[in-house]
Amino acid sequence: MKLSRSTLSLALLAALVAPAAHAEVALDVIGGSEVSFEGLVQADFYNFDTDGIDYGADSATDLDGEDYMQELRRAELVLKGKGPGNIEWVLGYDAKDDKFLDANVKYKFGNNANHFFQIGQFKQPGATMEELSSTKNNDFVSKSSITNSLGTPRRVGAQYNYGDNNWALTASYFGRELTRNREHGSGYALRGYWAPINETGNILHFGASYIDKDTDADGIRLRARPMADMVPTRFVDTGSSLTSAASLNNRTDRASTIGVEGLWVHGPFKLQGEYMSIDVKRTDGLDDFSGNGYYISGLWNLSGETWGYKAGVPTTPLPDDPTKGLWQLGLRYDTIDLTDGAVVGGEMDSITAGVNWYWRSNFKFMLNYAMVKQEKGVLNDDPNVIEARVQFYW
């Protein structure tokens, strides 16, 4: 759904004058379960200094010559329940993308938040640490290229997690995505992490993950947007080649991904990085494919707050002074390589600088500038992007 400038302005005005709310609005106690309601609404604006591609188009085939786009990014509605006993459940839906989010039931052993069994749809442990973190606290407007291109996010399955406050081992078996005509192919995922230092304002974390999934012989298409999550056109794309030998989008068997991650928090500073490598087995007699990518980012809370730590991911606090808010400066380097042998998917490098402002308990404003360089064979395209986000959550 496209939003006009006036619609975005009215949405921003409404957010600014709305009364402050609290997270997890309590609804009722039903069948021994304490039911609460959460929501997240995001609107994004992109302006492209384009090189040769119309990234502001409504679709890859409907080119309009515009160098900007504005659109509702997310409209997430989530019901949560605690109880009876050690049972927790969640049911989430994104009205913007018309898909189910987390929809699962969890049983905690001994009321330990890090020892549980879960069944339903949930984020897979083979996703990146960035993906496993809360969406409302993304450090940058666009997630990293490996998160968007190589990770496997929500699927229906079963998961067992065993650990404590500073370590855990997780294993899951999954199938398709709950929403029809979305991601499919069964597989399994593993993740382990350890935080040898885990105290207020001082965190050191290491983790690793592995995922293996069936591509159902339908092929797999790996591609990356130019650090703007909603654009329809991808320059870096393994499925855009004209010949079957040069495309992954046919006759593949399985895909496996290895990931490693690191996190360091010291007072108001956070340093975070992740690396992923994917191997695709082919059944057409051609060579297997390998691709990889990584990012490293740094954030500084100008207003002095520090991060928390939960379930192997950093957590962003509320502002110490709600009237002034929490101010952040961020810088990220990101790279992905999807070229291997006959498959020329392309390479992309980017540097993103950003400022975030969390105001009171429910509002967030983001402004990013991304410098992107893309190469594919003898072709190249180097857009620069200004990105802005308005967010309201409860």
Total number of strands: 22
In whole angstroms, the N-to-C terminal distance is: 23 Å
Going across the major beta sheet, what is the strand order? 2-3-4-5-6-7-8-9-10-13-14-15-18-19-20-22
What's the tally of helices? 3
Average pLDDT figure: 88
Summing up helix and strand content along with how strands pair, one would put the structural category as mainly beta
Tell me the domain tally: 1
Helix content: under 10%
CATH architecture label name: Beta Barrel
**Proportion in β-strands:** over 45%
Largest sheet: 16 strands, antiparallel, barrel
CATH superfamily: Porin
Per CATH, what is the topology? Answer: Porin
- Quaternary organisation of the protein chains: single chain
List unreliable stretches of 5+ residues: 1-22
Query: What would you report as the Rg, rounded to the nearest angstrom?
Result: 21 Å
Signal peptide: 1-23
InterPro entries: Porin_dom_sf, Porin_O/P
Keywords: Signal
Protein name: Phosphate-selective porin OprO/OprP
Record keyword descriptors for this entry.
394 residues, mainly beta, Porin, 16-stranded antiparallel β-barrel, 6% helix, globular, disordered N terminus
